[in-house]
Amino acid sequence: MKLSNNLSRTFLAFLILVLLVNLALLAPYLLSLFLGWMLAMLMRPIQSRMLKKKIKAHWASLVSTLIVTFTLIIPVGVFTALTIQSLGKVFKAAGTEGISKEYLVLKIENIPLVSRFFDDREALMEQIQSFSQGAVQLVTTFISTNLGNAPEVLLQITLALLTCYFVLVDGKKFADWITPKIPLEKSHKEHLAKTLVDTAVSSFWATVAAAAVQAVVVLIAFIVLGVPMKTLAFGMAFIFAWLPIVGVTPVWVAGLIYLLVSHHSGGAIAMAGFGVLASLADNIVRPWVIRGGADIHPLVSLVVLFGAIRFFGIIGVFVGPVIIATLITFLELWPKPMKELGLDT
Question: What are the structural domain ranges in the chain?
Answer without folding.
Answer: 27-99+135-176, 182-345
